[in-house]
Amino acid sequence: MKPQELHQLVFNFRAARAVMFAVQAGLFEELCQEDLTIDELVARLELHRASTTILLETLVQLDVLNKQGLRYSVAQELRATLRRDTEGSIANLLLLDANHWSNWSVAEDFFRPEKARLFAYDRQSNFAAAMQQGVGDMNVRLAQVLLAHGPGHIVDVGSGPGLLIEQLLGAAKNLKYTLVDFEKTLDIARGNLSAYEHCDVNFLPHDIVLGKLQIEADCIVASRLLMGFDDAEMKQILANICHGLVHEGVLVINEFDTETKVGALMSLDMLVNCGARVYGRDQLAKCLDELGFEIVSEQATTVFTRAFSAKRKGI
Ligand SMILES: C[S@@+](CC[C@H](N)C(=O)[O-])C[C@H]1O[C@@H](n2cnc3c(N)ncnc32)[C@H](O)[C@@H]1O
Predict the structure, then answer these.
(1) Is the pLDDT of residue 131 over 90?
(2) What CATH number has the domain spanning 3-105?
(3) Which of 142, 225, 227, 243, when mutated, tests ligand 1's pocket best, judged by the most ligand atoms within 8 Å of its CB?
(4) Is 20's C-beta closer than 6 angstroms to any atom of ligand 1?
(5) Is the C or the N end of the chain the one with fewer CB within 10 Å?
(6) Per-residue pLDDT averaged across 97-103, rounded?
(7) What's this model's pTM, rounded to 2 decimal places?
(8) Per-residue pLDDT tens for 32-61?
(9) Domain boundaries, the chain
(10) Does the beta carbon of 166 lie inside 6 Å of ligand 1?
(11) Closest CA to 159 of 72, 224, 89
(12) What fold does the segment set 129-312 form as a domain?
């Protein structure tokens, strides 16, 4: 097995769960009979619209559903497998698994029943390490996007352990940098960036949901930040960020690409874990428009992430 295949294998649990969600919600029972729009599905099954949209779009990216115009459909050859009343159906098995699913999450009970706490780990440092791994050269590409704007002061909001700034410092030591995050996360970043003490690197503990960014920068980046927040918070964060941007400045938003399998599954993951979602290009453009900004360029930073550069309209 190749590393990439292993990667895909283990993350397929999300894809499997997406199909189970759809069985549980009764989506296939409806869609195996006729093609339907989201409004029709939501009304028939009394579903939550925003969550159902994320699920449907994920199933489209997984090739389980097709979408033509506003209508979703199940391919003819999958119908007998996905509806519950046919001989070759797996829907009842999936429903069973969907109910047993939670038992798969409690490793302690089976593998170290007497020493359950040995499975405990430090969530903060695990999160920082997880953020660090598995995105390949995303920060290399994102750094290139930022430097191409010719900035003097780069602010990384939701900087995490500081890997993007470290990447930038490797390429441009003479710029001013500010990392914005929670104090505890900035402590990890301070450790990671200790070799750059002689550079103009600043750490600003700040909750970007709660307050405006009291800073003046010509380049502000938010990478994989917005997806952890619901609509209202996301809009508030964008407004708070824009406050710190000089008039001609550029705001760069790096997010998962919802038009990819990985991005769509990340959106579902965000829904389940934070009640949020990955915001696609159209939603970002709309929110930015309301703040007087427009997207001026966009670049892929991995095969499943994209960076959108936005400026105030007319700049
Ligand atoms: C998913 S991580 C992304 C880290 C980094 N930007 C990257 O792409 O690797 C999101 C980061 O945003 C930070 N964050 C979350 N909510 C925040 C808030 N309200 N104010 C400031 N930072 C926040 C988290 O602590 C975390 O470091």
Answers:
(1) no
(2) 1.10.10.10
(3) 225
(4) no
(5) N
(6) 90
(7) 0.91
(8) 999 999 999 999 999 999 999 999 999 999
(9) 3-105, 129-312
(10) no
(11) 224
(12) Rossmann fold (3.40.50)
Confidence (pLDDT) at 126: 83
- Assigned token pair, 280: 């696609």
